[in-house]
Specification:
Elements lengths: L3 E5 L4 H12 L3 E6 L7 H10 L4 E4 L5 H10 L4 E4 L6 H6 L1 H21 L4 E7 L23 H19 L3 E7 L1 E3 L18 H9 L6 E4 L11 E2 L1 E3 H17 L4 E6 L5 E2 H12 L5 E4 L14 H6 L8 H17 L2 H4 L5
Parallel strand pairs: 1-2, 1-4, 2-3, 4-5, 5-6, 6-11, 7-10, 8-13
Antiparallel strand pairs: 9-12
The structure holds nicotinamide-adenine-dinucleotide (NAD) and UDP-4-deoxy-4-formamido-beta-L-arabinopyranose.
Length: about 350
């Protein structure tokens, strides 16, 4: 019998792609999402990609009784936990929103899992836990440092809670530290749906090319990098989603309490290289200007992902051109569909 997996935040950007890959790998999927940063239509689109049903609970993971009801109704054997707020800037403005949703949500979820003897979990963390690193590539053994935002604090705290539960309460946990997820599903049916003006580079690029934004501002070209702009490790969201399935398989089989994996390609690209790749695959000229540095930006960071490659037997398949191509095709599809209107992705 196939295992049933609960995916929290399964209608969001990374969650929706992961649900597709779980179903492709014959897992049964139950999703809980409160639609705070997603829309119900994503569920229908996942079903049209995989032709398999999803059990959807529109509810909040902070709501203990909803989670109780879900765990009573379904035979959950493992959990992938995406549900969280993720906007770094907003977390600085409103830290309590982030502490409440991301940390309280994590605690409530794990408490209900514990009560129902469900102990296998994959948790979405971030390279933000490495803080302002001085040299790359970054291995998982690199020390985590004081967070550079309240959002980052929530990831550090949640990692620690999960480690505790693994050490003392029998949980088997995988912590996945993503670098910069970008791109969209090749079907162009699912992708990133940023709310309002995007903070992140790639949706800002695609919205600019689509004429929604006037021009991109490159945040700083006086860094100590070959072309002066920041370097990041961009990873295709489909590669990332596939890594979750491998991580889950690994968690079900592992003896150790927990394991941490970086998920990136192991290669860094500058902002200007990203722009060039976008222009090449889209055939568009991107209007951009050089601007001031953005507060809190790390100069350069990329992953050492060899641990995931070795232990999870995972490897990324898509390169930067594929990432830009799929991001652009998604933007075009979004403009043509009703999704962008249902969720205001442009104002
Ligand atoms: P997203 O906002 O697209 O998806 C999160 C989903 O969780 C949304 O559908 C939202 O409605 C839901 N949600 C939020 N709070 C909830 C709650 N209390 N109860 C139920 N549902 C809730 O974000 P994403 O980009 O898919 O990120 C998923 C996870 O990965 C997050 O934990 C995020 O912190 C982490 N992460 C993201 C990135 C990135 O750049 N996208 C990088 C590193 C880590
Ligand atoms: C990438 C590069 C910008 C926008 C964030 C979070 C991190 C993680 C991933 C969740 C940087 C530059 C951007 C623009 C620009 N998320 N840029 N003009 O900052 O690496 O990471 O997302 O865990 O925690 O902080 O990603 O996409 O915002 O920026 O020049 O309009 O693009 O300065 O160098 P970042 P990003």
């Amino acid at each position: 019998m196939n295992k049933t997996i609960l995916v929290t935040g399964g209608l969001g950007y990374i969650g929706s792609h992961t649900v597709v890959e779980l179903q492709n790998s014959n897992y049964k999927v139950v999703v809980i999402d409160n639609l705070s940063n997603s829309i119900k239509e994503v569920a229908e689109r996942i079903v049209s990609i995989t032709k398999q049903p999803i059990q959807l609970y529109v509810a909040d993971i902070n709501d203990h009784s909803s989670l109780e009801a879900l765990f009573k109704q379904e035979t959950i054997e493992g959990v992938i936990h995406f549900a969280a707020h993720k906007a770094v800037g907003e977390s600085v403005q409103n830290p309590f929103k982030y502490y409440r949703n991301n940390i309280d949500g994590m605690i409530t979820l794990h408490q209900v899992m514990h009560q129902h003897h469900v102990k296998t979990i994959v948790f979405s963390s971030s390279c933000t836990v490495y803080g302002d690193t001085k040299s790359s590539p970054i291995e998982e053994t690199h020390p985590v440092t004081e967070a550079i935002s309240p959002y980052g604090t929530t990831k550090l705290v949640c990692e620690q809670i999960l480690k505790d539960l693994c050490k003392y309460s029998g949980f088997k946990g995988i912590i996945l530290r993503y670098f910069n997820p970008v791109g969209a599903h090749p079907s162009t049916l699912i992708g990133e749906l940023p709310l309002g003006v995007p903070d992140n580079l790639v949706p800002y690029i695609t919205q600019t090319a689509a004429g929604i934004r006037e021009k991109l501002t490159v945040f700083g070209n006086d860094y100590n990098t070959p072309d002066g702009t920041n370097i990041r490790d961009y990873i295709h969201v489909v590669d990332l989603a596939k890594a979750h399935v491998k991580a889950l398989d690994y968690a079900f089989a592992m003896d150790q309490d927990y394991e941490i994996f970086n998920l990136g390609t192991g290669k860094g690209y500058s902002v200007l290289e990203v722009i060039k790749a976008f222009e090449k695959v889209s055939g568009k000229n991107l209007p951009y200007v050089m601007g001031a540095r953005r507060a809190g930006d790390v100069e350069q960071i990329w992953a050492d992902a060899t641990k995931a490659e070795k232990l999870l037997k995972w490897a990324h398949q898509f390169d930067l051109n594929d990432m830009m191509d799929s991001a652009w095709k998604w933007q075009v599809a979004l403009n043509d569909s009703n999704l962008g209107k249902i969720k205001d992705t442009t104002s």
